[in-house]
Design brief:
single chain, 212 residues, alpha+beta, 4-stranded antiparallel sheet, 2 helices, elongated, Emp24-like
């Protein structure tokens, strides 16, 4: 038994898959005061998904919910989004063609490690490549399935970054709790030793006075 492949239709499906463009990039960086990134959107109307998580703060005794600021600007320099004092955020917007800018600002005196993820989805409408009424539903279904898979990966990466941050926070809080307990114990022992010393001196002084 042989399989018969309709080459023109197969080529159309392949072309449709190639035209479904999913651009994904992620970066983890350490910010001092300000860090800016840019990304060129090649097609008008692409959907841009962004997420970031402040993974950790480089301060042994520092724990804060202050977060960072993020300013998103379009090709014309106009503001698209402006987030203030966020430790994590996830959002999306429909972009215009051109260079977009993403600027993070850290207002704390400590270096912070940020996980930044971008997913740009674009799909060339299948009618531009396929006129077959039987292929159109298939191509549309393929496009939706691919977009759903990329969205799941995007969401999973964001959740993993959140989990990593929480693990670091819990570990830092545990270490601080241990150090606090140690210093409290040391202070209590020191106070007890001082109290014994003072009582002993007082007792010796009274004993000396009674002998006189």
């Amino acid at each position: 038994m042989y399989m018969t492949i309709n080459l023109p239709k197969f080529a159309i499906v392949l072309l449709a898959l190639l035209s479904s463009l999913q651009v994904v990039f992620g970066i983890r960086f350490v910010i001092d005061r300000e860090e800016c990134f840019s990304h060129n959107i090649q097609y008008e109307g692409d959907t841009v998904h962004l997420s970031f998580v402040v993974i950790k703060v480089d301060g042994a005794w520092h724990y804060s919910q202050d977060g960072v600021d993020l300013m998103v600007k379009g090709p014309s320099g106009g503001q698209i989004h402006d987030f203030r004092d966020k430790i994590s955020e996830k959002f999306e917007f429909v972009a215009t063609k051109g260079l977009h800018h993403f600027c993070f600002t850290n207002k704390s005196p400590y270096h912070e490690t940020i996980d930044f993820d971008v997913h740009v989805s674009h799909y060339t409408y299948h009618d531009q490549h396929a006129k077959d009424e039987h292929l159109n539903p298939l191509l549309e279904h393929i496009s939706k399935l691919e977009e759903a898979l990329y969205n799941i990966q995007f969401e999973q990466h964001w959740l993993e970054a959140q989990t990593e941050r929480q693990a670091i926070v819990n570990d830092a809080m545990s270490q601080r709790a241990v150090h606090k307990a140690f210093f409290e114990s040391a202070a209590l022992i020191g106070a007890s030793v001082l109290q014994v010393y003072l009582l002993r001196r007082l007792f010796e002084r009274k004993l000396g006075m009674s002998r006189v």
